[in-house]
Every structure is written in C-alpha cells, then in structure tokens.
Amino acid sequence: MATPAIPYKSRPALRISFSVTSHLVQCASRDFQQTKNKMADFYYLPGSSPCRSVIMTAKAVGVELNKKLLNLQAGEHLKPEFLKINPQHTIPTLVDNGFALWESRAIQVYLVEKYGKTDSLYPKCPKKRAVINQRLYFDMGTLYQSFANYYYPQVFAKAPADPEAFKKIEAAFEFLNTFLEGQEYAAGDSLTVADIALVASVSTFEVAGFEISKYANVNKWYENAKKVTPGWEENWAGCLEFKKYFE
Predict the structure, then answer these.
(1) Quick check: 154 and 164 in contact, CB under 8 A?
(2) Which residues pair with 99 in a beta bridge?
(3) Is 203 a catalytic residue?
(4) Looking at 10, 22, 29, 48, which residue is catalytic?
(5) Residue 44: its H or E element
(6) What CA–CA distance (Å, rounded) separates 41 from 92?
(7) Model pTM score
(8) 73-132: per-residue pLDDT in tens?
(9) Strand order in the sheet with 99-102
C-alpha cells in the first residue's frame, strides 16, 4: 500500500519539527564534545611518585589532565587559593568539574570508577577489589612509606643513612616478592590500579639506586609492568627528574 501524501498545509509544521530536532541534536553533540574535551585540573610535581601514579591511571582510562605545576619550595601549596581546594595542602590534587580530591590512590579509584570504559582496572567483584585495596594500602603504608623514611631525610635534610630504615625497605620488597610468587600482576590476572601505584613506587626505588634485581618476582613483574602500563614513558621521565636529587 502506498504511503498517503502529506497534506500541503502540514508540510511547514513538519519542516519546523525537522529543524527543531536537528538543532537539538547539534546542541547535544556540542555539549557532549565540550564535556568530552573538558580537562580536570591536576596539581602535581612530575618527580612525585603518587602524582605519577595518577597520571598513568588517567592515561589508562583516557582522561586528559590539565596539569598545574605546584612549586612547593616557593610555598605555592600554602597559598589561600590552594588551601581552599585542599586544606591539607598536599599533592597530587585533582579538581574535576568543581569536585576536589587528594590522596593519589583515592584519585586513581575515582578516575577508574567515573571514566573507565570497563571495570578491569578496579573490578566490582568484592574479593578481587579487596585484594587490590590490600595492595594499594601496602604500597601506601609499607612500600612507599619505607622509601620516604629512608631516602627523604637524606635528600631533603642531608641526614646520614639510617641502616634500620633500610631494613624496612628490604622487608617491604620481601613482602612484595612473596605477593608476586607465580603472578604476572600484583592483584589478579590483569593490570589494575594496584600495579599502577606499585610501578610508580618501584620505579622511584630504581632511580634511587636500590637493587630491585635481588628480588626475582618483583624484577620479573616490574619488567612486564614497564611494557603494559599506559603512560609509562611519562612516569619514567618524572623518575629521571627525581633522580637529580641522588646525583
């Protein structure tokens, strides 16, 4: 059956409807593009391991960061305008469309949950997520903390090396070596935010001169992580900048 002809008087209204629809589609497309292109402000230093873990996570989920260098030595983190954003005046700090967040591992999880196309970097499975969280807390409270306790007094206060603090580093790497026994990744069978946080820390140990090769499982994991972690090149560039403190 043929489609009935549209009465002449109805045609202008139809043209107006098409015009309005086309306009709405164009507006929606423009708004989507603006949202897509909008970058989150990221206050950071390239040499900072926690900052680098966020940069790599952002790369992994396809988020472009509007990077804002913060000169800590000049006290820029203590200025009133930054204190309004982050009362703890720490880096990294993310401001995403007015939402401010600090602590690198919290930022990593936020970026994945908000922008990740899949949940592979931070799975929804409670058990898988629990292991990832354990590794993140291990990195924060044991591995990276051991770096800070041993190296920072030497770098920033010109203090002598503390042998007891160095033993804490060795213990932390022994733990990590155990976690990685028979494992290609730090928490599960694929790359997660745990690997990203840990590779930021371990690469910092490397430029500080720590012998990672002594720990076979860590060394094997680390070599693979260099190849599969998005944003590794920028992480390594930041490491080399931090290495200047040890030269």
Answers:
(1) no
(2) 96
(3) no
(4) 48
(5) strand 40-44
(6) 10
(7) 0.85
(8) 899 999 999 999 999 999 999 999 999 999 999 999 999 999 999 999 999 999 999 999
(9) 65-69, 40-44, 93-96, 99-102
